[in-house]
Design brief:
Beta-Lactamase, Heat Shock Protein 90, five-stranded antiparallel sheet, five-stranded mixed sheet, 57% helix, binds adenosine-5'-diphosphate, HisK_dim/P_sf, cell membrane, virulence, phosphoprotein
């Protein structure tokens, strides 16, 4: 596997090479299109002024004069009618030039070799040290005709600049590579850290540390990663607690049942005791049955919401019917129940919502004070229906309110110990209401009472 680091460095260097080639091609084209004519004109003027000077000074030494000019920074080729030729200044790399060209200049014309130097993709004509790449002008000296070919001696004129640009380029390249190598390390390091963290997470170690304090996308990613790790840890804890709760809640009725069946095996116990034990065993079996029913319901609610069978029904009537079923329990406990339940149609799963009202009502009864009251209200507010269950029971404190919808949570066991329950009822309520896109709120004051407010969309 090629590491991200190697790839990144290779790609960056590749980009650098590509862009330098591209930049060279563009500047070469620029020279060919725009600069070459200027250059040609400039050199032509210089050549012409040399020719003019020799014409006006017939008594000077031509060769000496041209020697001087070449020393300033020009490469010169001189030829006469007889074909006698001489060179001044640095030698041309390529001395070929057609005879017809020489004759063309000897006949009094100007040769624009710089302008017409052939365009080549990777050769900038400016640097080509060739006799063809010159300006040719006619020159008369002492009544004799010559052809003078001339180009600037790039090496002499620009040698230092060459070095300067050479070093500039070399340093730019070297520094860029070094910087890319280091900056890539800086970029890639958090990714390696994240990979290590992911590995330890997949090995079940949720306690990952990530010291990535950056404000870019990688910082964001590591924040999200840490959040995810915490969430996973929480979920793992909840799962473990859930299993241990279930095991405990199943184990304790089972051992009770076992204890009492053992006692029943003793033939010397009275009929009265026997009846008592059987009734305890029955209670425990009922508890187990409730627990497994609730667990099955929660599991199916968790799996998906396909199990919902939504249809229009009358909630007001549904709750009134439920109250009727609990009338005996209410009078047994001496609890006064009042309600305002107008006929109201809504769309939802009637059987699941019945479970909601059932849980809220049995809780209001179970956790009420003797001679307490319960008030149930149904109101339509815009597109929602609001159902309120208000009791004058034992109430809940702040920390308890935060947890009552957690699975298996039962507030202050000392108080609820004598009251039968599994701690699953309200989590079922919460899940069903969420599946209906509704929500539930709790207001409660210790020793004074609790109010549950359920809000559900009508449709
Ligand atoms: P349980 O089976 O214990 O009733 P629930 O999930 O229905 O489980 O309720 C969770 C806990 O919330 C209860 O154990 C109880 O402590 C508290 N609770 C629920 N309803 C009320 C209420 N109306 N008044 C006071 N406490 C309540």
């Amino acid at each position: 596997m090629k590491s991200l680091y190697v790839k990144f460095v290779a790609i960056t260097i590749g980009i650098m090479i590509f862009s330098s080639i591209f930049a060279f091609l563009i500047s070469n084209t620029y020279y060919q299109q725009k600069l070459k004519p200027y250059n040609d004109q400039k050199i032509t003027k210089i050549a012409q002024s040399i020719a003019m000077f020799t014409d006006e000074h017939p008594h000077m030494n031509l060769k000496e004069y041209l020697e001087h000019i070449s020393a300033i920074g020009y490469q010169i080729y001189l030829v006469d009618n007889a074909g006698e030729e001489s060179f001044f200044g640095a030698a041309f790399r390529d001395k070929s030039l057609s005879v017809s060209m020489k004759e063309y200049v000897l006949n009094g014309n100007t040769y624009h070799g710089i302008l017409h130097f052939p365009q080549k993709t990777f050769v900038t004509g400016f640097f080509a040290n060739e006799l063809k790449n010159t300006i040719g002008v006619p020159l008369t000296y002492n009544g004799k005709n010559y052809a003078l070919f001339l180009r600037p001696d790039i090496k002499l004129l620009f040698n230092e600049m060459h070095f300067l640009f050479g070093w500039l380029l070399a340093f730019t390249i070297i520094l860029s590579i070094v910087m890319v190598v280091f900056s890539t390390k800086y970029l890639v390091k958090p990714i390696s850290k994240l990979t290590t963290a992911t590995k330890s997470l997949s090995n079940g170690d949720f306690n990952v540390e990530l010291d990535i304090t950056r404000h870019d996308e990688l910082g964001e990613l590591s924040h999200s990663f840490l959040r995810m790790a915490r969430k996973l840890e929480q979920m793992d804890d909840i799962r473990k607690e859930f299993i241990s709760n279930i095991s405990h809640d199943i184990q304790s009725p089972l051992s009770n049942i076992k204890g009492y069946t053992n006692l029943l095996e003793n033939e010397s116990i009275s009929l009265e005791e026997r009846g008592q034990y059987v009734s305890i065993i029955n209670d425990e079996i009922r508890r187990l049955s409730t627990l497994t029913k609730q667990l099955l319901l929660l599991a199916s609610l968790d799996r998906n919401d396909d199990m919902m069978k939504k249809k229009p029904f009358n909630v007001g009537q549904q709750i009134k019917e439920l109250i009727r079923n609990y009338q005996w329990l209410l009078s047994e406990k001496g609890i006064m129940l009042s309600y305002s339940l107008p006929d109201t149609e809504m769309i939802g799963d009637p059987s699941l919502l019945n479970t909601v009202w059932d849980n809220l009502l049995t809780n209001a009864i179970k956790y009420n004070k003797p001679d307490g009251t319960i008030e149930i209200l149904l109101e339509v507010k815009g597109e929602s229906i609001v159902v309120t269950f208000k009791d004058t029971g034992i109430g809940l404190n702040h920390t308890e309110i935060e947890r009552i919808f957690d699975r298996f949570y039962r507030a202050d066991t000392a108080r609820t110990r004598t009251i039968e329950g599994t701690g699953l009822g309200l989590s079922i309520v919460w899940t069903i209401i969420k599946l209906h896109d509704g929500h539930i709120n709790v207001n409660s004051k210790e020793k004074e009472g609790t109010t549950f407010i359920v809000e559900l969309p009508v449709n």
